[in-house]
Specification:
With 278 residues, the protein is mainly beta. The chain contains 1 helix and 15 strands; from the N terminus they run αβββββββββββββββ. The protein has a single domain (30-277), classed as monomeric porin ompg (Porin), CATH 2.40.160. It has one helix at 2-18, and strands at 43-55, 58-74, 77-91, 98-115, 123-133, 136-149, 154-169, 172-190, 193-206, 215-230, 234-243, 248-249, 257-258, 261-262, 268-277. It is globular.
């Protein structure tokens, strides 16, 4: 029996190593975009839930939802539209806890592929996303980089993202920016299973970085694993990240960082992403 078990294990490992990986359009990451697009004329639906927990000196939990439809308009152009909504609960201890559900905004997304990572030496794409809500406006731009290795079993990807936000509170608009670097590596264990890791470095600014005078407020960093199952018709991705205790208070304002963690950022987050063909 022991020899049979060893033979079965060796056979399975050889099958995984020699199987041709599916060239799925889905990114193998939870938060990082890749340069592959869905084929022209095809559409996909996506549902994402993000669970956020923990902030310094308060009990905090939130669930963000996103419902999205993607469409391949051309071989090098992909469009999408989605709804964003959230439920959150905050308890500062000194005041009654607050909780509630809000529709936050609608978003449009366009990705223009400049280089296909499956047919060229690397992948390159540009991303633009405007968002509009009752008390919220956002404009996000991304540079998407991708490199496939080992017969496309290993995917390396990086995003450089700039987010510019307008939030209305008590009738006044507050303007903030975020500059983020995301990088990750994913390895296809078997034709349907991929594991990976993701890293994010974020710098927050008071003011709009490209539109007006701005000042850096804080740096924060996140790291965690991802796991994806891709059947070819649908995929499920699970990712988890933890804030690293290396946050920097760049504004020198009291309370911007607490114990090495950024005050405005959650300690932990878990993302569940489901995507299927239409």
């Amino acid at each position: 029996m022991r020899g049979t078990s060893k033979l079965t294990l060796i056979t399975w490992l050889l099958a995984c190593a020699t199987a041709s990986p599916a060239l799925a359009d889905e990114t193998p990451f939870a938060t990082i975009y890749t340069a592959r697009l869905i084929p022209a004329g095809e559409a996909e639906a996506e549902q994402t839930a993000i669970f956020r927990v923990g902030k310094p000196h308060e009990s905090y939990s939130a669930v963000e939802g996103q419902s999205e439809i993607e469409y391949g308009l051309a071989p090098d152009l992909q469009l999408a539209g989605y709804l964003n909504y959230t439920w959150q609960r905050e308890d500062l201890g000194s005041a009654p806890a607050r909780s509630g559900f809000d529709f936050t905004n609608t978003s449009l997304e366009a990705i223009w592929q400049l280089a296909d990572p499956t047919t060229q030496s690397f992948g390159l794409a540009l991303y633009l996303e405007p968002a509009y809500g009752p008390d919220y406006r956002e404009l996000e731009e991304k540079l998407i980089l991708q490199k496939n290795l080992f017969d496309q079993r290993l995917v390396l990807a990086a995003n450089i993202a700039l987010e510019q936000e307008w939030n209305r509170a008590a009738g006044d608009w507050q303007r903030n920016s975020e500059l983020r670097l995301l990088a990750g590596a994913a390895w296809r264990l078997a034709p349907q299973w991929t594991v990976g890791t993701e890293f994010e470095a974020k710098r927050e600014y008071d003011g709009l970085l490209l539109w007006q005078q701005s000042a850096p407020a804080a740096d924060s960093f996140f790291l965690g694993p991802t796991l994806q199952y891709d059947s070819g018709e649908y995929s499920v991705t699970l990712g988890a990240t933890a804030q690293l205790p290396f946050a920097a208070n760049l504004s020198h304002e009291p309370g911007e960082t607490v114990g090495g963690f950024a005050h405005e950022e959650e300690r932990y987050r878990v993302l569940l992403h489901v995507e299927f063909d239409l």
